[in-house]
Amino acid sequence: MEGTVNWFNIKKGYGFVKGEDGQDYFIHYTAVPKSVFLKEGDRVSFEPAQTEKGKQAKNVKLLEGGQSQGSSEDFSDEEPQEEQEEQEEKYEDEEE
């Protein structure tokens, strides 16, 4: 499946992608190659997975956009505040 990154927080190590099916998928940094930094608007391909925590993107591959580790100064670790809080609550509650 393909999708567009809604936001990804480098410091926290996760974010969300909107799949071509219109659904939001959680992305954990472990599903992204180490040399890739995701940012809002990047096009990615991924394997959708239904987990006990909800929909997640696995084996994420950057299709368009993005940067390598060497130029991380262009990245923001910020995401839309309301969306972040809403989605973080869902995942942080289950991690405890």
Let me know the largest β-sheet: 5 strands, mixed, barrel
Biggest sheet: strand arrangement: 1-2-3-5-4
Helix-strand makeup class: alpha+beta
**What distance separates the N and C termini?**
30 Å
Per the CATH scheme, the topology name is: OB fold (Dihydrolipoamide Acetyltransferase, E2P)
| Range of helix content | 10-25%
CATH class: Mainly Beta
CATH architecture: Beta Barrel
Query: What number of structural domains do the residues give?
Result: 1
Work out the number of β strands. 5
CATH superfamily: Nucleic acid-binding proteins
Strand content: 35-45%
Order of helices and strands: EEEEEH
Rg from alpha-carbon coordinates:
12 Å
- Broad shape: globular
Tally the helices: what do you get? 1
Mean pLDDT comes to 80
The low-pLDDT segments are: 67-79
How would you sum up this structure, described in words?
The chain is built from one helix and five strands. The chain is α+β, with helices and mostly antiparallel strands and 96 residues long. It has one domain (2-95): OB fold (Dihydrolipoamide Acetyltransferase, E2P), CATH 2.40.50.140. It has a five-stranded mixed barrel with strand order 1-2-3-5-4. The longest helix is centred in the last third of the chain and has 15 residues, at 81-95. It is globular.
Give a brief description:
This protein is an alpha+beta fold. The chain is built from one helix and five strands. It has one domain: Nucleic acid-binding proteins (OB fold (Dihydrolipoamide Acetyltransferase, E2P)), CATH 2.40.50.
